[in-house]
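Lecture 7, part B: from sequences to assemblies.

Below are the input chains for today's worked example.
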Amino acid sequence: MQFLIETLINSAMASAAAALVVVGLALIFGVMRIENFAHGELYMVGAYATWFFGTSLGLGYWAGVLGAIAVTAVIGAGMELFLFRRLRHNAMGALIITIGVLLVLQTGAGWLFGVNSNLLVDAPVSGAVVIAGVNVPWHRLVVILAAIVVLAALTVVLKTTRFGWALRAVAQDKDAASLQGISIGHISLMAMALSAALAGAAGALMAPIVRISPYMGQPVIITAFIIIILGGIGSIEGAVLAAILYSTFFTFVSTYFDSTIASIAGLCLMLVVLIVKPSGLMGKAQKV
Amino acid sequence: MSTTTITRRTALAAAGGALSALAMPTMLRAAEKTVRVGALMPLTGDLSLWGLPARNGAEVWAARVNEAGGITVGGESYKVEVVAFDGAYIAEKTLQGARSFLDQDVKFTMIIGGDDWAAMQDFSNRNKMLTATMYVSDLNPDSTYLIAPVEVHPFYFGLGVEYLRKVEPDLKTVALCAQDDVTGRSSLAFWRAGFDAHGFEIVSDAYFDNATVDFAPVVSAMLSASPEVVCIDTTYPPVALLLVEQLFIQGFKGRILHAGFELLPDMVARTSKEFMEGSIAFFPRFDDPGIAQAAVGMSDPAGFYAAFNAAYPNQWNNTSWEFPAALEVWKQGVETAGTFEADELLASMKANTPSHIFGAARWWGKDLFGIDNALVGNWPIVEVRDGQVTIVEVGDQAAWFDTHKDKVEARFREEELMPDQQR
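Predicted structure of the full complex, as structure tokens:
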């Protein structure tokens, strides 16, 4: 029973971290129709920025998190302004640009911080709390709670603010939104900054738990794409649901069997969903 | 009749040249020829944690040897030059590095071993490229020009389990984990044989994917079997740190076994001195008071350690001394053989066994790998005491293997690592 509880808690944390990453990816696909392969590297930048502001400059963990959000938001806005804006009608060009950004960010991190991945970010609250006989580190609870707060805030912004309505309108129909006076450029810029900031926040929250290296974004982006395909590309609700389902499934399989089997089983799960419901769990079928 | 005019400038230049020649140390003038040795290492990526200190260690060794007059081969003195290539532990890049070394006439190549040797074995054979690995499991009947002159990883694991049994006679159960790659599989096979040999029951035994991000589930699975000992194999340094941290958080109380504890200071910082106390590994500190008695095959190990720290402050790692130790073996070999050519050198080294860093050794490997290219000597066992590793024993790896050969073979066969199972 204790083992089961422990696995459930690990699943909850994995779900929370995955949800933060994939929501940004789904958001940017919904608004800009761009598969951002550099999203994992924005997560990596978030972790490095947390180390830089929080540990290296000694400003503390939460200042590091804010620094990570700010840095990634600026990078995201820069990507939209200087790269994607010029390729709005060239999906393949934009995709190739994201791969270029991925390589630039990876190499940049290696150049700036070195490739030795022994940079450590200490959790803001050390120690663990005992839940049903299981030691749960405080920081894992912080990650779960932070993900809930961020996702709830995102929902409120998307559903109750003018920016949120405009963003959803652009996601539904760009031309109609433009005819209503919504600035596509402005919304795209904001969406990209928001998406990157979410990845940065995820990286910042996970920094005390994972190993920080220039290559830490790679497994994350692979998992993220599996999840958004499962959830339905461009669907934020689907992405969250799929993040929970996939992460729980992966954690249980890797705990009870092993993580190699879990990786294979995760891909099989994605294939099953694509066969049974090709648009994903909450995606809408598109007419061709 | 022509006349030669000596200007003041010409006279000054001539005087300067003559003075430089006179001031040049005799040894330096003697060692005019250069021989190249190559460090084909991961200098970027996660494994640069091994590659960079290894390359740096080789540089320091070469500087010290050159300072002492270089090496003498066939009556001629040579300076040693270290060339490096970032193989990044990627097959294509490793092979590219091997080609580059061939072009530069590198006479002795050093690699970490594992996946990088798999990439270059054929190339090495075709070009008679003498190479040293840290992984004895790289040896196979076709690895003609590969030697394991220092670390015969994972053979010292048996000594560690033997030591554990001696100091903890009542412990019964152990949990094991490793990353799912060549390194993880070969070393976990040896650990299993060690635990079989010394009466431990393996209650949990699993591989994890190399892309694993969160190690909490891996540790939860191990601890669910209530082990008294946890062995985290040869997990890569950053992974070992996260595993140790999880073991601490999830309340494990017992001894931890690992190949190297490269990030021990960070482990202590994230857990506690008390938690790490008694953990067992196999790589000594070179400022350990017992190092001079243990590393008898290396001239002035403490001096080497001081020189390394002066040249590369805070970068010392286990690999910092391993590659210099391999170079010491090669130096003995070429000086005795009187040649750098691989076939003659290998024959001479087999006939006149060089000293191993930890004392007398013998060529071995035919039983398990189909080729006697491993220089098996003694190896130290270290224990974490008050937050740092301390040499507690030096054991005979070959003797341990001879006693428990059947168990090792059985475990290697399970993983399809025996020579007759190689694909």
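Note for the exam: The interface with chain B takes residues 3, 6-7, 10, 13-14, 17, 110, 115-118, 120, 128, 135, 137, 140, 206, 209-211, 213, 215-216, 218-220, 222, 251, 254-256, 258-260, 262-263 of chain A (CB under 8 Å). Keep this in mind when comparing with the next example.
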